[in-house]
Structures are given as structure tokens and as C-alpha cells.
Task: structure prediction
Amino acid sequence: MTTDTTKTAAVTTPAGTGSRTTGLRRLTALGGIATIAATFLSWTYTDEFPGDLTVYGYPGGLQVLTLVAGALVLLYALAALDIRGLRWLAPTGTTKALRFLALGAFGTTWFTVIAIAVELGGVVNLEPGGFVAAVASAIPLVAFLLPDDTRKASRPKEIPSWAEILIIVLAFGIGLFVVTYGIDTEYAELFTGYMITAGFAVGALFKSGIMARLSVLTTKYRSIAVAAAFVAAAAFPFTQNTDQYTLIAVNILIFATVALGLNIVVGLAGLLDLGYVAFLGVGAYTAALVSGTTASAFGVQFPFWASVLTGAAVSLIFGVVIGAPTLRLRGDYLAIVTLGFGEIFRITVGNLDGVSGPRVTNGPNGVPNIPDLVFFGYDFGESHTILGIELGGYANYYLLMLLAMILVVLVFSRAGSSRIGRAWVAIREDETAATAMGINGFRVKLIAFALGATLAGIAGTVQAHVQSTVVPEMYVFAGPVPPNSAFLLAAVILGGMGTISGPLIGATLLYMIPAKLQFLQDYQLLGFGLALILLMRFRPEGLIANRRAQLEYHETGQLDTPEGTLPDSGVGTVKAGA
Amino acid sequence: MNDMTTTTETTTPVLDAGGVTMRFGGLTAVRDVDLKVNAGEIVGLIGPNGAGKTTFFNCLTGLYVPTEGTVRYKGTVLPPKPHLVTQAGIARTFQNIRLFANMTVLENVLVGRHTRTKEGLWSALVRGPGFKKAEAASHARSMELLEFIGLQDKADHLARNLPYGDQRKLEIARALASDPGLLLLDEPTAGMNPQETRVTEELIFAIRDMGIAVLVIEHDMRFIFNLCDRVACLVQGEKLVEGTPSVVQGDERVVAAYLGTPFEADTPEKAEAPAPTEAPEPKAAPEAEAPAGTDGTAKGAEPVAETPGADKAQRTTSTEGEGQ
Result:
């Protein structure tokens, strides 16, 4: 309550400023309405530009994104104007959120308009509607003239727990829809627009404090939130008509699972492993060789559970064999040696072809024709109809991979908050002090390394069946297609080290961007380099920061200073009173 | 020489270091040092900077493997690995605070429990009743220790955000979490103000009363002479003298080691004079160096620089004395 009154006071005391603020907010709201209206106009003459933006009264393609961005601007502008029933949108202030949203609407619209002009050869291709949209979307930028109204979130209103649970479910539903929309984007322009809109909108939601409020709810109902997240993830294949995007989703899951495994090694234990993809390769090759394919040197066909166990076991052995000598090194040396071992794996596998080595892996040709999995007569390669919805082959693998990811998430969270997890973090923080506290550094690091290897191996066994071919070139240090060691590490760092959701989001972004923006192919690595540099400059803790990293990198605004008062002040008042 | 010590030879000492020598190439940092710590004792280790005190500590805790000599804990020879030494029952703190800065206060202490708990990766993944019981016990014990040092209200703070004095205390709590029989403290009051030093003193007495023997390195002479049952002085890697605080305090070689040897003939008398006062060395400096019979006024006359050379010498010695 106090915060509210101070805020109103701050805004209204200088009478002129107050009315100016209200005026600007009204203008922003008008800009939002104008942007929405502009999407109902025709923006271009021909339907050569993908998405068909020629129709009046029916927004299509990129116009839908502009519409959404405009609507969000309108909503938040109305919330800023203190319209009843909208205040919950921005517990910690609207201005910053409005600025983000204004940029989102502006960015999406102008990107579209410029893309039309460039691709169709000139501004002449724009209909008046396009110009109207460009101008309308620039109006909300006046939000940058608004005074900053950042405030401390007031206590949320008491609502019954069923409503809170409903909010969680709703939030994950929206999340599923947004992600699905992104995966389903059909052309590069639409995906770019989606990234602009979604990026700024998510930023705005964080700035407005609504995400913090949501995360309070998810912490309160943790198991429900986790269940909702996985139900939302499992629902994805049911939203798809074809296998095209399910395949992308499967690959994202593989990539994310392996990144999460790497996060145990890098994020918790602090071991910089630059050859992690080799363990994925070990798992995949093991599964391929025991899958019963004709190309295998071993004429055996293990059932899937056995091949998963074999893949995990072989990865574990490789992890221990590689870890035992290398984990005696610290820091940079470990990174170099693991990089070396990663390459050794790829080159060795490439040479076990019967010419330069024993015939095991067919060398560079790899192991093709890995058969589809069959569980109790349920063939993963075929389509099945479940709940009246036809699921393609990849949907089966998607669900299987989701199970593997749940396993890794479970391992990560359970190991992380235990005696061994604390020992990992202690080793990462200060190895000398950790050993002086009785932690056997080598042993604990080896456990982390081997655990990471095993999880990657499990992911690899599924990957072999999804891809139906494994070749050495899939397991390089750096390459255009994730997962490779460099991208795995980038996913962990981009998303946020030591968190669960961080690597998942990092992996999703790092997979989707190259998959969707094919035209970027030549500049992709350059782009990632730049993105990582910018990230390290502005958000070194990653997109999703755990509490620890947040405090580590941002000294100000500490979350855990004692409630409002310094420890000494209590003593002071006592003295003053006495 | 060292038979003035008040050791009782009937029980095995908690710590028995015999002939510990540590060489780094041609440099002998610690030479043939013997030291015993008995149960319920607080032993001090003093010496000028660079005397090899911390090196000796590192030899005791397995961070260094001594070139010669053995270290026994309650009669058994200690293994040359730090984590095994901690496992055996010797815990330590560091001269420059080495907390796990980005872990919470409670987590720091929980890490200290590592050697006294067994739960491995498998039980963490399965989360059986044994795991939960062990975690709960670790939590309870850690909170108990935090209450002991008075940080229970800051259990969820990051260690890095604690004020300096609290960080020192937390390091002690973390060391205590491994249920040690001997606690090694490396300059526990460095950088503390007199009040904080007094609190630390109380804390160490309380630790002794818990039945834990303490070996403490310190430069604050008042602190060490108040606290310790015995004091050993290390100079240039060798143990110069060992005995009760009054014995060490009165030993002119200790004073000489801290302040340098005076060249005047009648120094022994002068060196004895400040012994009754509790902190001899900073005050002794001006007096020992005082030129021709101006004993009483020497301190007050310091700013007046008559002979530039003498004044300079005086200043350097006094800063040395205080800079400990």
C-alpha cells in the first residue's frame, strides 16, 4: 500500500508532469489501436510476398504478429492508465514493459515493410496500408518519453488456490501455443518477425513483474507446474498435421537433453568440457551397432531397453576412461584435453572402416538403416491414431525423447540439491577449500563427468533411431548443425548455467534459428559469435539466471539483503532507545 | 629448552608433529619443527611474516607433503591428502578467507558436513528415507552451528554478502561442521577491530570447551597471550621457543626476532622492562632505539627529527612492529 501511495504521489505532485504522463500514455494506447487497425489494411499489391498481405479486413502472416504486438501495447497502455481490472498486468510498473512492447510492435512492422520493399524490389510495392502501419507502429515509441514508474510489487491479491492452479495451466498453455507457433512458422520472414515480437514481448513480461509473480506461483505449486510443463510439452505432437515440424521438435529435444546433461558437468561442477558431443556419439554408435542393422559389424539385435542400457554403460565407461586422466587437470587444461578427446572419438570412428583399422563402424559412411523401434508391436516408424488425432512416426520418438528429458531433468534436480551436488558447487567455487573441507575433488569430479557422459549416451541411443543413420560428422566440435560441442556449450551459457530451464531455452533458440533462417547459413557462426559477445556484455548470467548467478554478476539490487534494514540498524535503534 | 611446557605426557597428544621439514627447491620454508597439541589445549603459533607458519599449517593439513618428518593425529600418522586429513579429524580455516562465495551461508556449513555423511549420487537420485533422514540431520547440525556462531538469521544469504567479521566466523563454523578433534585457525582475527577480536576470543574459548583442541596462528599478541595455554614462536622456519605465554613473552630472542637485535650493550635490561605490559613489541621499539638517556620523552619527541638517519630507522622499526 505504501508503495502505491508513494508512486501516485511521485507522479502527480508536479501537476504539469502528471497530465503530460497521462497524455503520453493515451497516445501510446492510440498508437496500439492504430497499429491493430493497420493490420486490417492491405500492405502490398501482390501475393508474391509470403503470407498474402494483400487482403483487406483479414490480417495474414506477419500482419498477425503486428496485430498481437499492437494488442499488447494497447493492453499495457490501458494498464498504465489505471483502467480497472488490468493492473495485475504490471505489478512492478508499466513504463519499461511499454517501451519493450513499443519496440516489438515497431520492429515487427518495420521489418515487414522493409522486407516487402527489399524482396519485391522497391517501396513502390507497398500499398498505402503498409505506410499507415509503419507510421502507426511508430506512435507507441512515445513510451520512451514516459517517466519511469518502476515500483516494488505490492502484495498480490488473495485468490483461491484453484484459480492459482488455473493460472499456471493457462500460462503453460500460452507457452505451448507460442512455442508451437514458432516451430510451425513456414518461411524465414515470418520466423524473424516472430522472434522480434516474441523476444520483446517476453522482455516486457519480465520487466512488468508479471513473470516474477508467475514464478512465485510455480514455486508454490511446484509439482503441478512441473506436470503442467510436461503435459504442455507432450501435447505438442497433437497440434501437428505433418511430421515436418515434429522432426524439428525431436531434434530440439535431443539437443536440449544433451545440453542439460552438459549443464551438470559445466554448470554444477564447473568442468569445462569441450568434447561433450563425443558421449552422444558413443551412445548413438552403440545403439546403432546393436540395433540389428545389416551395416553393423555385430549381428545382434537388442531390444530397446537393452540397447539403452548398453549405450549408457558404454558412455559411462568412456566417461570414466577419459575422465580419470584428464580430471587431474584444472581449468583451461581440462578444456583443451576434452576438446582433444572429442576429436579423437570422431577421427577414430571415421577410421574403423576395415581399411585403416578394424571394420567396426564403416568409417565415414557411418551405420545406415537403423531400424525403427518396436515396443510390444507398436512400431515407432508408423503413424498411429491416438484420441482421434493421427500421430506421425516422429511423434512417437518425440514422446520417447521427452521421457529421456524428464529423466535428465530429474537427475539434474535431485543430484543438484544433495550432498554430492553441494560438493560439485564447492569444487567449482574453490577447489582448495573444498578439499580442505574433506571433499575428494577427483572422485567428485569424476562422478559428475561420468554422470554427464551417461546421460548423453542415453540421449544418443534415441538419436540413433531417430536419424536412422549415424556418421562421424554428426559429432564434431563446431559445425553448422547442432548438436555439436560448441553449440552445446553455447546453449548452456546462453540459457544460463546451473539452471534447468536455461539450457532448454538456449538449445531451443540455437536449434530453431539456424533451422528456420536458412539464408543465414554462411553467417551463422558469425552471428552466434556476436550474439554471445553481446550476451556476455549485457547478461553474463545467461537468459535464465539462477539466484546465485544473478547475485554474482549484479551487485546492486541484491535479492537477499535483509528485509529493508541493515543488520546494524537494529542495534542502533536499541542504543538510541536506551 | 622446551621443558618449561605444561604438557602432561600421560595421554596421547591430539596432534604430534615430529621433525617437520618442508623444502621448496633450495628454500627451506620449515626446518625440523616439533609441535604437540594436547586435548583441551589452545596452542598459539607466532612468528614474523614469512616465518613459515602457514606452510607449517599446510604440512599439517596435507595440502603440502612435508619433505621430512611425520604428523600424527591421536597417535596415527596422517595421510598426505587434505580430504583424508579432514576425514581423520583436523579442520582448518584459511588466512585469506576461502568461503564458497556463491553458496549460501547454510550451504557452506553443509559442505563442511561432507566427511560425516555418506549419501552418494545413487541415494540422491533415489531419495529413499535414509537420504531424507541424513539431509535433515545435516541441516539440523548446520543450523546448530550457525546458532553457535550467531549467524542463524543469515542462513539464506550468500556467503559473499556477509560482512567481513561474519565471513571469518562462518569459516570457523564450516570447519566445525566436520566434527573435528583439532581446529587449525590461520589468523582468525586478521583485519578485525578490537571488539570483533574479543568476540572471536570468546568463540575460541567456547570451541575449546566443546572438547576441541585449537592451534591458532595470529599476529595480535594481546589476543594470543590471552587465549593460549602454550605459544610456539617460529622464526625463519625454525621453532625458536615454546612455552607458556609469559615465558615466550619474556624471551628476548622473540622480541629480537620481531624487532631486530639492538646493538647497544645494555639492551637486556631494556628488553625486560616492557615485558610486564601485555604488548611489548610496538612500545619497545622507540625505547630500545632511543638515543642517549631520553627514555621517557622518546615517544613524545618522535615528530622532531634531529638526526634524519636515526629517525628513519626508528620509523621503520615501529611500522614493522605495528604492521603485524
